[in-house]
Amino acid sequence: MRKSLLVLLLWAMVAEAHVPAPATDIYPPHLQVLDSHTRKAIQRFLLHNRIVDTPHILDNAPYIVAAAAGRVLGGNGERIHARGVLNPAQPTYGIFRRGKVYTDPDSHELLGINADDIGTARFVVAGDVTTLAVQRVTQEVRPGDRLLAALPFAPLPELLAQSPADGVKGRIIDVPRGVTQIGVLDAVTLNKGRRDGLMEGHLLAVMKAGAIVRDPITGIAVKMPDERAGTLLVFRTYEKLSYGLVLNASRSLAVMDRFESPDQIQ
Questions:
Q1: pLDDT interval class at 130 (50, 70, 90)
Q2: Residues in CB range of 40: below 8 A, 6 or more apart
Q3: What is the model's pTM?
Q4: Where in the sequence is the signal peptide annotated (predicted)?
């Protein structure tokens, strides 16, 4: 099963992400499965999408009070004022707003909160009211928006395709870019994370639920078998959530589709 999975991965990446095929039919132990363009796309996604594990992280973060001279908070180059514990040694802060709250679709446990990216600001003058200068905005900055230390732009670790050591099952619970139909190279949010054994580089099979049909002879409703519909590569994990990239899909995927370790498929 593992060999066939690796062959499938190589085929998918050559077809969809332009990864050069290996010179041998033996899967290299340290193959980098994503090409530079796809890795850069993932890096850009991570710069604009951030999850916090608990509400307290945002609730206790420094916050924006007003813009300079009381103007409506706006765009690039504006001076803004903030309160809270800000570190002058941290030159750049990300501006975030509380976004979607993720809960487990089965247990209803709080899994994390999406911190919506509003922009970035650089440190100018420290004080009880600190002054910062807006560097980048995705939308209008508002009083009450929170400041979090910007994550450094660092190369992604080498992503090695492998199945999870322990069987894992879960669901796709969101598509951060806001679409309903999911296709190849779309990023998705998964309801499992590090505590469940997921790590960067894990491969997961996406399963579509079989349709319910009526038996033409007995008239009884019968569920058709679930079918494999795609493959995900986990590229960022949090405590209870993960981001995955769709490597291939035989049909449109959707929120609430299942995923599981490929080794679990019979």
A1: very high
A2: none
A3: 0.76
A4: 1-17
